[in-house]
Amino acid sequence: MRLPRLTGERLYRATLGLGIGTVGVGIVPYLVPSAVARLFGVPGPTSPVVGIIVRSVGARDAINGLGIVSATIHAGRVAPWILARTLADAADLLAVGLAWRAGARSWRTVGIGIAALGATILDVLIYRAHRAAPRAPFTSGPALRNRP
């Protein structure tokens, strides 16, 4: 199976979707950390320390997402923001692997690992498309069409 090539408008939409999705994934844990901690099976989900950790991860994702969205809309350098997201998702995947090795073997651990792996693969695909694109890959996106 061959993936469609991400260029032009398709790359613009994929990147904007990645950014918006990342903002959403980041905001939820920031607003309701105990619910997210419970969902992932974190012991003591109402602990203030757990809240700090969950909110920190949420803030990291929301900030990466805002950077991706802003760079996309303003025809800026998107690749560094996507690389930052890629590294964060890969670190999440590594953390899941370490937890699995330490004995955290539940369906939640597997789910988190699958999500982190999927996110990392998506990040790499979009990052590579940006690295292969000309300096300003968005020559037909809405943000550029509406500029004076």
Q: Write down the overall mean pLDDT.
A: 87
Helical content band: over 70%
The N- and C-terminal alpha carbons lie at a distance of 41 Å
Strand and helix order: HHHHHH
- Quickly count the helices: 6
Shape by Cα distribution: globular
The main β sheet shows up as: none
Describe this structure as you would to a colleague.
By secondary structure, the chain is mainly α. Mean pLDDT is about 85; it is low at about 145-148. It has helices at about 10-30, 35-40, 50-75, 80-100, 105-130, 140-145. α1 packs across α2, α1 runs antiparallel to α5 and α4 (about 80-100) runs antiparallel to α5 (about 105-130). It has one domain (about 10-135).
Set down the secondary structure blueprint.
Blueprint: H1 8-31, H2 33-39, H3 48-73, H4 79-101, H5 107-132, H6 142-145
Helix pairs in contact: 1-2, 1-3, 1-5, 2-3, 3-4, 4-5
Descriptive keywords:
148 residues, mainly alpha, 6 helices, 0% strand, disordered C terminus
Task: Give a summary of the structure in a few sentences.
The protein has 6 helices and no strands. It is mainly α and about 150 residues long. It has one domain.
